[in-house]
Amino acid sequence: MKKISNIVFSAFAFAAVGCASTTDTADAPLKDVFDGKFMIGSAVNAHQIAGHDSLALDIVKKHFNTIVAENVMKSGEIHPLKDAYNWAPADSFVNFGCDNGMFVVGHCLVWHSQLAPWFPLDADGKYVCADTLRCRMRDHIHAVVGRYKGKVKGWDVVNEAIVEDGSYRKSPFYEILGEEFIPLAFEYAHEADPDAELYINDYGMNVAGRRDTYVKIVNDLKSRGLRIDGIGMQAHIGMDYPDLAEFEESLQAFASTGCKVMITELDMSALPTVSRSANVADMVDMKQVVDPYPDGLPAEVSDEWNARMLDFMRLLLRNSDNISRVNVWGVEDGCSWKNNFPVRGRTDYPLFFGRDYQMKPFLGTLSAELAKK
Ligand code: G3I
What we know:
Largest sheet: 8 strands, parallel, barrel
CATH architecture: Alpha-Beta Barrel
Strand content: 5-15%
Bound molecules: ligand G3I
Strand order of the largest sheet: 1-2-3-4-5-6-8-9
Number of domains: 1
Radius of gyration: 21 Å
Helix content: 40-55%
């Protein structure tokens, strides 16, 4: 019942307000719909790559021409011990992408989260010295990028390095190496695969402080003659953030560096914004805040969600000359990280396909609009 109520609400509500998806284009492969605009794809997870969700893989094969590894290539997963790699899941991911002719993206080489615990630490649990970290970064990046040379076409080299005020995140990489950890990571990645595209990636890229620092970083990398091809705007957005004009200003600022812009982790929460710091236990009606729609979105919420996502996609389309790729951060709502963030046990509806594996109405509207052009 849960799945049917979800799709019935969405299709009916959206149709009812004159944004009906037209069936003749609603089912067109998205890679054809956006052909000539940007590549369109999703993140895929270990469960899907292992073949445990054939419906999800059917969607990926039909609709997408690019995929990115949600978790299997992060250092904590692929290089869990200093002298041990866990290649199998990443191999399956890369092989799936290559077998299906996709633009395969590796995520991510240098990130403070899901970082292999041993990576920045010595035997006593203290930060290693700069030389040791440089060697470890180089060895890790050469091993991972080198293994998939020619197969992985682009890499999120550094992820989430800058905080909102534009200063460097106090990650182990920054604490030990200072700002140099970023050029070093790009240098090592290029050494390992000179033909791979290299990206820097972050969330909250609409925020002026972060935007300005990334423009500086990218221009610095270029002035040093280091390869950087793209700036990734993750685009984990919600119904009330970010201001789309701010997002577009950042998109255009990044494009002005001469880099490609890519939307790397698109999802839009349909739920009320909850702060991680808020103690939801104190809230009068915690359920209403944490998991208000466990059995499907009410028509008006689904309609609002589809309308805002339509606005966001129209923003991307009018900037498509500067955008090379749009990846949603998951195939269908049920697999989204947003079901457990910022608090666990939510039922969110942030992606292009619902838990019923059906495309959401805004895509039919968008397909029809593009078909007319
Ligand atoms: O692999 C272990 C498994 O062995 C264990 O049984 C299970 C127990 O819960 O945890 C599994 O690890 C989980 C991992 O995803 C793989 O599924 C972690 O608990 C979980 O925290 C982790 O969440 C990922 C999150 O990054 C970690 O920060 C999400 O799936 C992933 O979507 C999310 O993706 C990040 C991007 O990489 C960077 N941008 C932000 C985005 C959202 O945080």
